[in-house]
């Protein structure tokens, strides 16, 4: 058990890329699933979680999993991100556990 819990979890983590979009997407998703697996242990009620993700097949499953834990979940693409980049952020607000 963690002694301290957090109001905001911010993940800009990313694996070294291989250049193969599907592989890179699955690798970053693996990190995100690892975070989601411990989110109940480290998050205060009402907290938020923001994570970078590369668009791909696991994206909807991650959104669904987050929607079971957070009141609001949505996408955010920073202006600084290239338009043709598959990089986006998922923002989950108001942890309900």
Question: Describe it for me?
Answer:
This protein is α+β, with helices and mostly antiparallel strands and 97 residues long. Helix content is 32%, strand content 35%. The chain has helices at 21-42, 59-67, and strands at residues 6-11, 43-54, 70-76, 87-95. 14% of the residues are buried. The model has no long low-confidence stretch (mean pLDDT 93).
Can you summarize the main beta sheet?
4 strands, mixed
Rg result: 13 Å
Average pLDDT: 93
- Spans of at least 5 consecutive residues whose pLDDT stays below 50 are none
**Amount of helix:** 25-40%
Strand content: 35-45%
| Distinct helical segment count | 2
Strand order of the largest sheet: 1-2-4-3
Number of strands: 4
Q: Structural class, from secondary structure content?
A: alpha+beta
The span between the termini is 15 Å
Helix and strand topology:
Blueprint: E1 6-11, H1 21-42, E2 43-54, H2 59-67, E3 70-76, E4 87-95
Parallel strand pairs: 1-2
Antiparallel strand pairs: 2-4, 3-4
């Amino acid at each position: 058990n963690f002694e301290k819990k957090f109001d905001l979890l911010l993940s800009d983590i990313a694996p070294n890329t291989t250049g193969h979009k599907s592989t890179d997407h699955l690798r970053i998703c693996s990190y995100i699933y690892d975070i989601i697996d411990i989110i109940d242990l480290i998050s205060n009620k009402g907290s938020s979680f923001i994570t970078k993700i590369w668009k791909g097949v696991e994206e909807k499953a991650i959104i669904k999993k987050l929607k079971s834990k957070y009141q609001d979940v949505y996408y955010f693409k920073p202006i600084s991100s290239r338009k043709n980049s598959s990089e986006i952020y998922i923002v989950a607000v108001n942890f309900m556990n």
